[in-house]
Amino acid sequence: MGRTFNWKRVLFNSMLICFFIFFMKGNVAQAATFTDVPDSHPSAVEINFLAETGIIKGYSDKTFKPSNNVTNSQVALMISRALQLDLNNRPNPGFKDLTKVDQKTYKAIAAAVDEGIFPKGTNFRPFEPITRGEMAQVLVNAFSLKGSSNQQFKDVPKNHKHYQAIAALSANNITTGYEDGTFKPSQPLTRAHFSTFMSRVLEPDFIPVKSGFGYNKNYQYIYELYEGYTSREYFTYLSSDVQGDWWYVSDDYNQGIQYVNSIGKDGFTFKGFLANDEILTDFHIPYPVKLGTSWSFSMKKGLKPVTYAVTSMSETVTTPAGTFNHLMEIVSSDGFQYYYSKDYGHICTKDLRTNSVVYQLVQLKKK
C-alpha cells in the first residue's frame, strides 16, 4: 500500500505537545482540527488522524460535518489518498453520470474502478450516499480483507449481496455492528462512521479493546523500582471476592499492603489500601480502550487530576522478565509513560523527562 506516514508517532508527538502545554499552562485542551468536531466527539481522534495524514480534507469553512452522509465520490477520493493510487492514465470507467464531477474526482473514481475497488456499471451515483453494506464491500476490495466471523447480524442473511464483505469486516474487528445485533447494511454511512472504519483498517490500534490489562493471578510478579537506589516489590495473589482479586505487595523486608485488582465492564482498576483503609494508590484504565483514548482522575479529593492518553496499542518492550509484545502505551500529563499487557498487566514505567525506566517487571513466576 506504500504508506509513508508513521501513524502512532504523529499521534504521540501531538499528544506530547499537548502535555508539555499542560505542564506550562495548566490543563489546556488540544485544539480540534475541525470546528464541528470537539474533543468529546466519539470519532474525534479518528477524524483528526485521517486529517493529519491527508486522507480527509473537510470543507472550506473548516467544518467536517461528521453527521452528514458520505457520498460515493467522496469515498473514491479518500480511498485513492489512503492507497496513494496513481490517478494518471486510467481507462474511462464507463459511467454515464460523471459529467458534473470535477477532474480530480473523476480521476479518483476512474482509478478506484480500475483497481477493482468499485464495481463497473451504468451509473456511479457520485453525489448519492454510500450505504454501510456498500462501504463494507469497498473496504474489502481496497484492502484485500479476508476472513469469516461467528458473529451473525440479524439483518444480514447469508444470501445478502454484501454478506461476505460484512463478515470480513467483523472478522478483522473493523465493525461490531449495533447493540441490537444489527449491521444496518442499507443505511447511509455517515462521515464520522466512515472515519472510524477507515482508521481501523489503516491502523489496528484504533480497534477498541474491551477487556484485560489486569494482573494475572496465576503468576507472582517481581518488580524493580529505581529512585536513586534499587528496591524490589513482590506481588502475590491472595484471594478473590466481589471486589476483585486481592494481592499482597511486599518489599525486600516482607513489609507490604494489600491491593485489589478489579476488572469489570467499565474497565480495569488497581487500588492499594493502608491498614486504616485509606487508599494509597488508585490506577484506572477505562473500557473500551484504543489509540487516542484519554481520561483524567484524581486519587483523592483536592488533588490535581492527572490526564492519561493511549499513544499506542502495539508496542514491544523487553525487561529482565522477557520480551512483551502488543503492549498498550500510556502517556500521563505528569510526565510518565506506562506499558500494559492485555494478559499480564503492568510491565514497566518510564520517566519522559529523564528518558529512563523507573519501574519494571524483572521476573514473572508461574504459580
From TrEMBL:
Residues 30-93, 95-148, 149-212 form the SLH domain. InterPro entries: Cell_Envelope_Struct_Comp, SLH_dom. Keywords: Signal. Pfam families: SLH (PF00395). Residues 1-31 form the signal peptide. This is S-layer homology domain-containing protein.
